[in-house]
Design goal:
The chain has 128 residues and is mostly helical. The chain has helices at residues 2-25, 31-53, 63-96, 102-112, 115-126. α1 (2-25) packs antiparallel against α2, α3 crosses α4 (102-112) and α3 runs antiparallel to α5.
Length: 128
């Protein structure tokens, strides 16, 4: 349970960097492109934080291998984040009559969605 809480805090920081950088990218780029670029900001920061503070006792493989496995797990999370974020903006929120701050809210929900799947992916695949 303690490791999962550390994961939540570390992932929360990476998610905050992801979410806030998307707002910056959106100043110059389309929403969908900004989501993907922001995801890589969160991906990079998350790997560094989690390797150092969450899964440090499980570093039996090389960091190159861990980085590749981390990337694979997070590509699945990107698919979840992207799909949910775009679906909410295009269809979900309009059907509910939500019209203000839709991109920020949809992206926040999208970023938070893969928390549990990412934890188990990293625990049993990336940092095993």
């Amino acid at each position: 349970m303690r490791q999962f809480l550390k994961f939540l805090l570390s992932g929360g920081l990476a998610a905050l960097l992801n979410w806030s950088s998307r707002m910056l990218f959106s100043m110059w780029l389309p929403y969908e492109t900004a989501i993907v670029l922001a995801f890589f900001v969160g991906l990079t920061s998350g790997f560094i934080i989690m390797r150092r503070f969450v899964f440090r006792g499980q570093q039996k493989t090389t960091s190159r291998r861990q980085a590749l496995n981390y990337f694979i797990v997070n590509m699945l999370a990107l698919a979840q984040t992207f799909g949910i974020s775009v679906a909410l903006v295009r269809w979900g929120f309009p059907s509910l009559g939500i019209v203000q701050n839709t991109e920020a809210l949809a992206h926040l929900i999208g970023v938070l969605t893969p928390v549990v799947t990412s934890y188990f992916g990293h625990k049993y695949f990336t940092f095993r």
